[in-house]
Amino acid sequence: MTIKNITVLGSGIMGHGIAQVSAMSGYHVVLRDIEKQFLDKAMEKIKWSLDKMVSKQKLTEEQGKEIFSRITPIVDLGEALKDCDLMIEVVPEIMDLKKKVYAEVDKVVPQKTVFASNTSTLPITEIANTTSRPERFIGIHFFNPPQLMKLVEVIPGQKTKKELVDDTINFVKSVSKEPVVCKRDVPGFIVNRLFIPLVHEAAYAMDRTGATKEEIDSAVKFILHFPMGIFELADFTGMDVIHKATVEMHSRDKKVINPHPLIEKLYDEKKLGQKSGEGFYKYSGEQYERINLSEEIAKKFNPIQLLGNILNNAAWLITNQASDPQEIEKALLLGMGLKKPLFETAKQFGMKNIVAELEKLAKNNKFYEPDPYLVSLM
């Protein structure tokens, strides 16, 4: 597959970010949305981002202009797809909406076009099967914001051709990103399968132990080596994103997630985190505020149950041949910013202790039963 022309469907934060990243790597990009006003806004943001890079001397003024000129905003779908080699779909995470978009695309797209979805949790196989080319359909999950985040998850569907996986890995590298392949189309892929259940588990840990959010977050940051606390990270991501991902993942696999009612409650109350001014924490103003966490506060909470949760999901990915330890560590480093490998942290706690903790929880809820891979590491 030779890729020269890319069409990005959807011009929101992810869409215009992917368009910019692709144009910066020399591709000709068509950015498509349903209304001109959305495209105008997206092009303004791309221009602002490129101007910022020019002011920081990461690009010359000439390079900035050249990159910008490689992105063409188009409303008409047929026009947007007429010479497209790779279409990257970035419409909202609603399965019915995605299916509707692909039905329209299928009628006007050239035979040569490969389909890619930037979905973060919806099953690639299910979307692919609504199109006329499931063997030429793949998941390319960029992380937010695409301009800064290095990780891209590559997810083949059940019918995706092997060569397309290799071509997609090469494409991801060509836009200066690091690919991680999720070898099976499992709910949440790699990063969200580890991150989303952990938010719920942290809420359960609060119930079980009476620990404060700050104590749990301090332990996650200073003992589990996350870049920030888990509640902090949830607020930063957005409760709308977490809730939707929870519903999708849980509806497809009850084993992946043990939903805590607090997440849905915050979502229903429009307490979406940083973007709405309140989530787990309260915020004031536009700037992202860091919560006051410390190593001293971290000593008040033992995060072994949280570690057990994320390890159990990592082990599930390994047992079910969706990933391997090296790829999981790479995904956690680049996608979640972990400052120390997960399995190294596990060694410090002792795998025996972690498995024992999971077994204790499993007495009341089978969800916590330790994965055979974890047991094998004891």
Report on this structure.
With 378 residues, the chain is of the alpha/beta class. It has two domains: 177 residues, Rossmann fold (3-Layer(aba) Sandwich); 186 residues, N-(1-d-carboxylethyl)-l-norvaline Dehydrogenase, domain 2 (Orthogonal Bundle). Helix content is 51%, strand content 10%. It contains 18 helices and eight strands. The protein has an eight-stranded mixed β-sheet with strand order 3-2-1-4-5-6-7-8, sandwiched between helices. Helix 2 runs antiparallel to helix 3. The longest helix is centred in the N-terminal third of the chain and has 20 residues. The radius of gyration is 21 Å and the shape is globular. The termini are far apart. The mean pLDDT is 95.
Give the helix/strand class: alpha/beta
**The CATH C-level class name of the largest domain:** Mainly Alpha
Rough outline: globular
Report Rg. Answer: 21 Å
Helix count, per DSSP? 18
Please provide the count of β strands. Answer: 8
**Gap between N and C termini, in Å?**
45 Å
CATH topology of the largest domain: N-(1-d-carboxylethyl)-l-norvaline Dehydrogenase, domain 2
Helix content: 40-55%
| Order of strands, widest sheet | 3-2-1-4-5-6-7-8
How many separate structural domains?
2
The average pLDDT score comes to: 95
How many strands, what sense, and barrel or not for the largest sheet?
A: 8 strands, mixed
The appropriate CATH architecture of the largest domain is Orthogonal Bundle
Low-confidence stretches: none
The arrangement of helices and strands along the chain is: EHEHHEHEHEHEEHEHHHHHHHHHHH
What fraction of residues sit in β-strands? 5-15%
